[in-house]
Amino acid sequence: MTSGFELDRAASGRRAQCYLPAMNPFRRHFLVCLTNRPPSVQHSCGARGSTELLAAMQKAADRKGLRELFGTAVTGTTCLGLCESGPNVVVYPENVWYAAVRPDDARELIESHGVGGVAVERLLHPDVDRAPPESAP
Ligand code: FES
Question: What atom in ligand 1 is closest to the CA of residue 43?
Protein backbone atom coordinates (compact mmCIF):
# COMPACT_ATOMS: atom_id res chain seq x y z
CA MET A 1 0.00 0.00 0.00
CA THR A 2 1.31 3.40 -0.89
CA SER A 3 0.64 6.23 1.47
CA GLY A 4 0.59 9.69 0.09
CA PHE A 5 -0.68 13.18 0.47
CA GLU A 6 -1.26 16.14 -1.67
CA LEU A 7 1.01 19.04 -1.12
CA ASP A 8 -0.30 22.49 -1.79
CA ARG A 9 2.22 24.71 -3.40
CA ALA A 10 0.89 28.03 -2.29
CA ALA A 11 3.60 30.00 -3.99
CA SER A 12 2.86 28.68 -7.44
CA GLY A 13 -0.77 27.95 -6.91
CA ARG A 14 -0.24 24.45 -8.28
CA ARG A 15 -0.92 21.22 -6.51
CA ALA A 16 1.56 18.40 -6.62
CA GLN A 17 0.90 14.81 -5.73
CA CYS A 18 3.64 13.61 -3.38
CA TYR A 19 4.09 10.09 -2.14
CA LEU A 20 5.89 9.10 1.00
CA PRO A 21 7.48 5.72 1.36
CA ALA A 22 5.58 3.38 3.62
CA MET A 23 6.30 4.34 7.23
CA ASN A 24 7.03 0.77 8.21
CA PRO A 25 8.95 -0.71 5.31
CA PHE A 26 10.26 -3.67 7.32
CA ARG A 27 8.39 -6.34 9.16
CA ARG A 28 11.22 -6.55 11.68
CA HIS A 29 14.24 -4.31 12.15
CA PHE A 30 17.38 -5.09 14.15
CA LEU A 31 19.23 -1.92 15.11
CA VAL A 32 22.80 -2.30 16.31
CA CYS A 33 24.35 0.65 18.13
CA LEU A 34 27.59 1.69 16.43
CA THR A 35 28.46 4.73 18.51
CA ASN A 36 32.15 4.72 19.29
CA ARG A 37 33.71 6.85 22.00
CA PRO A 38 37.15 6.71 23.57
CA PRO A 39 36.89 4.49 26.66
CA SER A 40 38.37 7.31 28.70
CA VAL A 41 35.31 9.43 27.88
CA GLN A 42 32.37 7.05 28.28
CA HIS A 43 31.42 3.45 27.61
CA SER A 44 30.23 2.83 24.09
CA CYS A 45 29.06 -0.06 21.96
CA GLY A 46 31.55 0.66 19.21
CA ALA A 47 34.49 0.39 21.58
CA ARG A 48 33.16 -3.02 22.60
CA GLY A 49 32.96 -4.50 19.13
CA SER A 50 29.58 -3.52 17.73
CA THR A 51 30.97 -2.95 14.24
CA GLU A 52 32.03 -6.59 14.13
CA LEU A 53 28.68 -7.56 15.64
CA LEU A 54 26.76 -5.73 12.92
CA ALA A 55 28.86 -7.39 10.20
CA ALA A 56 28.26 -10.82 11.74
CA MET A 57 24.52 -10.20 12.05
CA GLN A 58 24.23 -8.96 8.47
CA LYS A 59 26.17 -11.97 7.25
CA ALA A 60 23.89 -14.31 9.18
CA ALA A 61 20.82 -12.48 7.94
CA ASP A 62 22.02 -12.62 4.34
CA ARG A 63 22.67 -16.33 4.70
CA LYS A 64 19.09 -16.83 5.84
CA GLY A 65 17.66 -14.53 3.16
CA LEU A 66 15.92 -12.54 5.87
CA ARG A 67 15.28 -9.42 3.87
CA GLU A 68 13.77 -11.26 0.96
CA LEU A 69 11.91 -13.92 2.90
CA PHE A 70 10.87 -12.12 6.05
CA GLY A 71 11.18 -8.38 5.34
CA THR A 72 13.80 -8.10 8.04
CA ALA A 73 16.53 -5.46 8.13
CA VAL A 74 19.75 -5.37 10.14
CA THR A 75 21.32 -1.94 10.29
CA GLY A 76 23.55 0.21 12.45
CA THR A 77 22.31 3.13 14.48
CA THR A 78 23.62 5.76 16.84
CA CYS A 79 23.55 5.69 20.63
CA LEU A 80 20.52 3.96 22.13
CA GLY A 81 21.14 5.50 25.53
CA LEU A 82 22.12 2.40 27.48
CA CYS A 83 25.85 2.70 26.89
CA GLU A 84 26.99 0.88 30.02
CA SER A 85 25.56 -2.41 28.80
CA GLY A 86 26.65 -2.47 25.18
CA PRO A 87 26.91 -3.63 22.57
CA ASN A 88 23.17 -3.08 22.48
CA VAL A 89 20.66 -4.22 19.89
CA VAL A 90 16.99 -3.28 19.75
CA VAL A 91 14.44 -5.04 17.59
CA TYR A 92 11.31 -3.34 16.31
CA PRO A 93 8.38 -3.51 16.20
CA GLU A 94 8.57 -5.83 19.20
CA ASN A 95 10.72 -3.39 21.20
CA VAL A 96 12.98 -6.18 22.40
CA TRP A 97 16.34 -5.04 23.74
CA TYR A 98 19.53 -7.07 23.90
CA ALA A 99 22.67 -6.21 25.84
CA ALA A 100 26.32 -7.22 25.73
CA VAL A 101 25.82 -8.93 22.40
CA ARG A 102 28.96 -10.39 20.81
CA PRO A 103 29.68 -11.36 17.21
CA ASP A 104 29.53 -15.00 18.31
CA ASP A 105 25.88 -14.40 19.29
CA ALA A 106 24.90 -13.10 15.86
CA ARG A 107 23.87 -16.37 14.30
CA GLU A 108 21.72 -17.41 17.26
CA LEU A 109 20.08 -14.00 17.41
CA ILE A 110 19.24 -14.02 13.72
CA GLU A 111 18.06 -17.61 13.63
CA SER A 112 16.03 -17.50 16.83
CA HIS A 113 14.56 -14.02 16.75
CA GLY A 114 14.92 -13.08 13.09
CA VAL A 115 13.68 -16.32 11.60
CA GLY A 116 11.76 -17.92 14.44
CA GLY A 117 10.42 -14.84 16.22
CA VAL A 118 11.70 -16.17 19.53
CA ALA A 119 13.77 -13.85 21.70
CA VAL A 120 17.15 -15.08 22.93
CA GLU A 121 16.50 -14.98 26.65
CA ARG A 122 20.11 -15.04 27.77
CA LEU A 123 20.84 -11.85 25.81
CA LEU A 124 17.80 -9.82 26.84
CA HIS A 125 18.66 -6.50 28.38
CA PRO A 126 18.21 -6.80 32.15
CA ASP A 127 17.10 -3.21 32.62
CA VAL A 128 14.48 -2.89 29.91
CA ASP A 129 10.86 -3.91 30.30
CA ARG A 130 9.98 -6.20 27.52
CA ALA A 131 7.20 -8.06 25.89
CA PRO A 132 7.88 -11.31 24.08
CA PRO A 133 8.03 -11.02 20.32
CA GLU A 134 5.06 -12.17 18.35
CA SER A 135 5.08 -15.48 16.58
CA ALA A 136 7.21 -15.94 13.54
CA PRO A 137 5.92 -14.63 10.25
S1 FES B 1 26.95 3.83 22.84
FE2 FES B 1 25.60 2.19 22.41
S3 FES B 1 23.89 2.65 23.61
FE4 FES B 1 25.15 4.38 23.88
Answer: 1
Question: What are 78-111's pLDDT values in tens digits?
Answer: 999 999 999 999 999 999 999 999 999 999 999 9
List strands edge to edge, sheet with 96-98. Answer: 72-77, 28-33, 89-92, 96-98
What is the C-alpha to C-alpha distance for residues 118 and 113, in angstroms, rounded to an integer? Answer: 5
Ligand 1 pocket test, pick from 83, 98, 101, 128 with the greatest ligand atom count within 8 Å of Cβ, gives 83
pLDDT of residue 1: 34
**Model confidence pLDDT, tens digit, residues 34-62:** 999 988 889 999 999 999 999 999 999 99
Name the residue ranges covered by the structural domains of the chain.
Answer: 28-123
User: What residue type is 49 in one-letter code?
Assistant: G
What is the fold of 28-123? Answer: Glutaredoxin (3.40.30)
